[in-house]
Amino acid sequence: ADARITLHPDFRRGTVDRRLFGSFVEHLGRAVYTGIYEPGHESSDEHGFRRDVADLTRELGVSMVRYPGGNFVSNYVWEDAVGPVGQRKPFLDLAWRTVEPNLVGTDEFLQWAEREGVEPMMAVNLGTRGVAAAAALVEYCNGEAGTRWADLRIAHGRTEPYGVRLWCLGNEMDGPWQIGHKDAHEYGKLAAEAGKAMKLVDPSISLVVCGSSSMQMPTFGDWERTVLSYTYDLVDHISMHAYYEEVGGDRGSFLASGTAMDRFIDRVVASADAVGAERRSDKKITISFDEWNVWYLETRFPGETNLPIQRDAPRIIEDVYSGLDAVVVGDLLVTLLNHADRVPVAALAQLVNVIAPIMTEPGGEAWRQPTFHPFATTARLAHGTALDVRVDATAYDTARHGSVPTVTAAATVGDDGTLGLFVTNRSDREVEVDLAHVGAALELTEGWRMVADHEQAVHGPEHAAKVADACWSVVDTSAVVVGTVTGSTTVRL
Ligand code: AHR
């Protein structure tokens, strides 16, 4: 075989946190309106939320949903979107230059998340707003009766606190495109003060401080160091965001996106640990990889500036995906699993319509994009402990990422002994898995394969299904060769 994967149950990397399978709903394009929410749609529930989308969200295995942005949060006035819907005023969102009708706000989202069994991850506005609005929002969500903002929630009909545990201190504050963009010192100080106040409202919350918007940002590294110098003792996680796309037909580089993500994680971990080392701190800051996906940002999206002002949930960045994109999504999940010890939280950006695994038509169907399948299957099969997998594979050269391995793999072992093995083969060569150390009895129960087909669907359920049919298939486990070769139990894939 050209590549060999060796598993040993005693070589462990870390526990797979269920929050690794998070996603993201931003007030952007059709993510909320005609995405999760569409009153009058035939599948909508009594709250106006689409049942078909909620069912697909469950099938996708999403554990957590980040809300309400994204760039949107950096000019959001959350108070405008609570209370009687008839009294709410539309708001001009400057991030996407879209009129936000404020029909869905904090209560509607949190109650949807509760009904659907997903953990909410909230973000506060540290662009145009600050300490007071952030602390007030925590109180509105989590406070007990008897103080102003908690009582406002109760007056709006919700007595029980929502108990939101995860909070983002703003979004991509290093990006010049961000409304209220700040330099690292300005942001670090503000995040420290906002976070302090938020934790004084509710000490049980966890905080995510903004890291760099991508590894390509000119301030990358310096940003992490400076921001953590203000917030190290206060926050639990630092955020990472990364989007990958095929540029100029360079398939080899695109297929290596998981390796690029791997190196990015190593660098952020090193930056965080360097701050901890200087402080002689035993605390470890972990990663919230709260935006990741394939996004044809450079190639297809015209840019976030100079958009005309739009209304009525415009179609913005509705990327349509191929089998190749889905393979890359699967490979990115392999990378995340291989960092289970330092990445407990991640969010596929986004959930519905906007660079999303789930698509809808207003008044019409909801369907799965090809990227849906590797995510759903990994979320379903990756449980328990992530193993430290040994991969011996040849390397190939790429224009964007240098030398990368032809094969990547992650494996998990659940409490019931079920082994999950996740492999990306970036070449067409044979891969052998050495399972000799895993256990005497080996029963292959199910297998799935995504083929890196280039053909991209056109928007619509039939085409998405056609592409998925062509690329996504059950592996006939009886056809997988299981044998004993030089004393090892091997599986040939
Ligand atoms: O997910 C789309 C956008 O990408 C988000 O609003 C922003 O945080 C990032 O730049």
Automatic annotation (TrEMBL):
Residues 290-493 form the Alpha-L-arabinofuranosidase C-terminal domain. The keyword Hydrolase applies. Its EC number is 3.2.1.55. It catalyses: Hydrolysis of terminal non-reducing alpha-L-arabinofuranoside residues in alpha-L-arabinosides. This is non-reducing end alpha-L-arabinofuranosidase. Keywords: Carbohydrate metabolism, Glycosidase, Hydrolase. It comes from the Bacteria. The keyword Hydrolase applies. Belongs to the glycosyl hydrolase 51 family. PANTHER family: ALPHA-L-ARABINOFURANOSIDASE C, ALPHA-L-ARABINOFURANOSIDASE C-RELATED. GO terms for molecular function: alpha-L-arabinofuranosidase activity. It comes from Isoptericola jiangsuensis. One of its GO terms (biological process) is L-arabinose metabolic process. SUPFAM superfamilies: (Trans)glycosidases, Glycosyl hydrolase domain. Pfam families: Alpha-L-AF_C, ASD1_dom. Homohexamer; trimer of dimers.
